[in-house]
Amino acid sequence: MAKQANAPVSPWRFRVVIAGLLVLAALLLARALTLQVLDVDRGYRFLQGQGNARTIRTEVIPAHRGMIADRNGEPLAVSTPVASIWANPQELGKNQDSWAKLARALDMSSAELSARLQRYADSQFMYLRRHLSPQDAKTILALKVPGVYLQREYRRFYPAGEVAAHVVGFTDIDDRGQEGLELAYDEWLNGTPGSKRVLKDLYGNIIREIDAGREASPGKDLQLSIDLRLQYLAYRELKSALKRTGAKAGSVVILDSHSGEVLALVNQPSYNPNNRSQLSPSALRNRALTDMYEPGSTMKPLTLVAALESGRYQPDTEINTHPGYIKVGPKLLEDHRNYGVLTVADILKKSSQVGTTKIALSLDEQEVWRVFQRFGLGRSTGSGFPGESSGVLPNHPNWRAIERATFAFGYGLTVTSLQLAQAYAVFANHGVFQPVSLLKRDSRAERKQLISPKVARQVVDMLEGVTGSGGTATRARVDAYRVAGKTGTSHKAVAGGYAEDRYFSLFAGLAPASDPRIVAVVAIDEPQGDYFGGLVAAPVFSKVVADALRLMNIAPDDVEPVASNSDDGDTAA
């Protein structure tokens, strides 16, 4: 038979329950007496500790990243204070009623906010919005949503924008270097965060500072060799040239021959480091240091160094280039026209392939290669720029005649624009080689006498003839200054050989020719229409160097007014 539903409780069980409750109450009372009466200090410390655990926080003090400046102290990269909003998902998750208004303030949907909270449900930290203006952050915090807090950070700003982007590079959202010198010198620029303990209220507002903790250590500043004034001038002229010629890309490098410092280095296309939302990979390339190309006739001055050092040739040595072409193996090498008898100086002035070939084939098969190698080709300049190319300088165990010939006028090897500028700086610097630098130098770098001052002077004089009447680079002239340099026009290499209608147009030169201070290289990739270096690259050199000479207060060395740049002479090569 079933038990009755309302059977009386056993008296002894009732007494046991009552006794248990009395014992528990006694224990609680004893603990309270211990904490509040018998051991006040200990009790206070306990209760305070429990409160502190909920209100005292250790805050990270972000470190200020070092500034990047040009050689005159003009800022190229600076860090500005910004605010970031973060949340404790475990706290915020308990306040679903506030999600809608919070999402609106964050400029996101409620569904997006909900999804993010679910993703970080097991975490105590997640960013809601980063790098906000103080006013936007204030608006969000004014909602007083539990679990939402403020964090102070720094954001990188680049005053020169696209003009210096390829040199400076940029940082990521955490202010760590990603490209350019920001990446190369990240450890130098990056500071050490500090910390402090603070008392906060329910809404994350700081009530007071408990202790100062450890101060943030700012990063160190970095001063570049770049002159921002020249950087702007070179960038403007290069951009204008690409628009005028329809070229695919281009670069300009300007060196101070006395110090080896890079005064300007610009590329097209470029990008705005302050807004990288639509950044293309091709725009990131620092083409002056990473893109390699066959330098064409800009190598002829180096070939003539080998000729002069052999003792068999002088600038006035005559060579017969008749009938204007020469057959080397199966290959026919041709000049722009039949020049007949030319001096060595005129071979450079007219950029004669025939004359250069005859000189190269008369020398030991390694002589030209050794000069190229001495001038730094085939190895990195040591600029420290991430991803800098070394170029290619092959050395064959047995050189075929055609390889020796084409090598002498710039085919079968590759260089970067910075390498080419460094090589020409040897002529400008009286035969002395010194490495280039993207940082401002406080002292002179290690120097090496690479060729004799006499040979260097002979080459500069011959290069000056290239820009004179009848030369291939009359459009490189600068009013009131003597200019020396060499044009180059090379077919672009493609699979299986060379493209018939795709070129690199080049000019490498120095000024003033009487005592060179500036070295500049202009490279234009795939110009449309005119493509000879003398027509495409030389005018850019003229405009950039003219501005640079005057900006640097370099005295004119040609008091006679120069003829109009309409005298094109021979534009080939």
Can you tell me about this structure?
- The model is unreliable at 1-5 (pLDDT under 50).
- This protein has 2 domains: 59-223, Penicillin-binding protein 2a (Domain 2) (Alpha-Beta Complex), CATH 3.90.1310.10; 228-271 and 285-551, DD-peptidase/beta-lactamase superfamily (Beta-lactamase, 3-Layer(aba) Sandwich), CATH 3.40.710.
- Helix 14 (344-350) crosses helix 19 (453-467).
- Strand 11 (249-256) and strand 12 form a beta hairpin.
- It contains 21 helices and 21 strands.
- The chain starts with 10 loop residues before the first helix and ends in a 22-residue tail after the last helix.
- It has 573 residues and is an alpha+beta fold.
- Helix content is 35%, strand content 22%.
- The strands form 7 sheets. Strands 2, 3, 4, 5 and 10 form a 5-stranded mixed β-sheet that branches. It has a 5-stranded antiparallel β-sheet with strand order 12-11-21-20-19, with helices on both faces. Strands 1-8-9 form a 3-stranded antiparallel β-sheet.
Offer a few descriptive terms:
single chain; about 575 residues; alpha+beta; Penicillin-binding protein 2a (Domain 2); 2 domains; 5-stranded mixed beta sheet; 5-stranded antiparallel beta sheet; elongated; disordered N terminus
